[in-house]
Design a protein that fits this description.
By secondary structure, the chain is α/β, with parallel strands linked by helices. The chain has a single domain, classed as Rossmann fold (3-Layer(aba) Sandwich), CATH 3.40.50. The chain has 7 helices and 5 strands. A 5-stranded parallel beta sheet has the order 3-2-1-4-5, sandwiched between helices. Helix 7 links the parallel strand 4 and strand 5. Helix 4 crosses helix 5 and helix 6 packs across helix 7. The chain is globular and about 40 Å long. The relative contact order is 0.16.
Length: about 160
Amino acid sequence: MHSIYNVIVQISWFFLKILALFNSKLKLFVNGRKHSFYLLDNAISKDDKTLWVHAASLGEFEQGLPIIEKLKNEYPAHKIVLTFFSPSGYEVKKNTSAADVVAYLPMDTKKNAAHFVKTVHPDIAIFVKYEIWPNYMKALEKNKVPSILISAIFNKSHKVF
């Protein structure tokens, strides 16, 4: 099943890059990810302590903001790394003072997930709402990084569950 997921991610990424030629929001989505690793590589050193918070978009950021602020106060020696999936979050909050580093989350491929976790080397990963990315979860588990999902509601009647 995981292999099928990885193929779907690769195919999706291929088509997203094509569709981005015709859609300004998708263009931000695709082009923003081209700079994610450059940004992270230049903002985080191997000696930095980091905490990673991921929000899909602006609404999830707002839900996670009280936790980000609490982490910033409780762990002042740590850099807060904030990632977004959507341009609606990143473009509005890319200069937020709530985090030390703000970037698009690279697509959920095995290679990206391994590189991201190695680069960011978080002490903990916090996902807001329903952001569960299998390759990132596996990379975090492999590196023994605890992961937390916040602000999610699981309902038995929902078709996904």
